[in-house]
Design a protein that fits this description.
9 helices, 8-stranded parallel barrel, binds (5S)-5-amino-3-OXO-hexanoic acid, 274 residues, binds zinc ion, two-stranded antiparallel sheet, alpha/beta
């Protein structure tokens, strides 16, 4: 089995002032999308920034980013519906107006460092059904073991998502949420309901490498990128997201699970042809 590598290049948390190499402009986003595709990524998880490099859910800017990445690459374009912890729920639903291939859908409220990342059941249900209607393939983000149960509740209430597959991503190592340890990840994998067809994992900060290695060894897929981790190795800050993608691709290839092509990934996730 090959490996689906997703890159999350920007996120909503790092400040541009602290991490100047963060791709926050459209040009830089397209450049990083190209280099990450060449390095082995098949999907990109996008958060965008405004002219002041602040996180934004402006639908016009989101649409421009989706169009530009589609024009420059064959990557599956996944928009974050998580946004930042400060984004109102109604703005997060409007993300689908930008017509991405895929969207993230976090399966419950969670501690998020000093903040709380809100995902009440009504919001998740509305987003789930909207994604079905718009023919957008969701990726279910699981920050906590309880989120696995919340995912089952959504599937039982609304049926399978558009595309007919159920792909989940464990986001581990967020301070106050599920730890980024092999034991916690494998506990989550053991709980997955039968409808889940594939899983990936990411580890925040220093949990990045152990979670990447665990996911690859256990038959999962990988998410990497500066949204989650800006340190390549001790004393070495990531300069370009493709460094993280290339390392994941090398590890996956050594483990006889080379990176999935974008064409394979589209079929694998049931992405709509556009
Ligand atoms: N920025 C976090 C509050 C997602 O993209 O869907 C939420 C997040 C999850 O990153
Ligand atoms: Zn995100």
């Amino acid at each position: 089995m090959s490996t689906l590598i997703t890159v999350a290049p920007t996120g909503a948390e790092h400040a541009k002032a602290d991490v100047p190499q963060l791709p926050t402009t459209l040009d830089k986003l397209v450049e990083t999308a190209r280099s990450c595709e060449a390095a082995g990524a098949a999907m990109i998880h996008l958060h965008i920034r405004d002219a002041e490099h602040r996180p934004t859910l402006d639908v016009g800017l989101l649409t421009a980013a989706v169009d530009a990445v589609r024009e420059a690459t064959d990557l599956i374009v996944q928009l974050s519906t998580g946004g930042s912890v400060h984004d109102p729920l109604e703005n997060r639903l409007k993300v689908l107006d930008a017509a991405p291939d895929s969207c993230s859908l976090t399966c419950g409220t969670t501690n998020f460092g000093d903040d709380v990342f809100m995902n009440p059941h009504g919001f998740m249900s509305e987003l789930y059904v909207l994604a079905q209607e718009r023919e957008v393939v969701p990726e279910f983000e699981l920050f906590e073991l309880g989120h696995v149960a919340a995912l089952s509740r959504l599937i039982n209430a609304h049926g399978l998502p558009y595309g007919g597959t159920v792909h989940v991503d464990f986001v581990t190592g967020v301070p106050g949420a599920m730890p980024g340890t092999p034991a916690a990840l494998m506990a989550g994998v053991a709980m997955l309901p039968p409808e889940v067809t594939s899983w990936s994992a990411t580890g925040i900060g220093r949990t990045h490498l152990p979670i990447l290695a665990t996911a690859l060894a256990a038959g999962g897929h990988a998410r990497v990128g500066m949204e989650d981790n800006i340190v390549y190795a001790k004393g070495q800050i990531v300069q370009d997201n493709s460094e993280l993608v290339a390392r994941a691709a090398r590890l996956a290839t050594e483990l006889q699970r080379p990176p999935m092509t974008t064409t394979e990934a589209r079929a694998f996730l049931g992405i709509k042809a556009r």
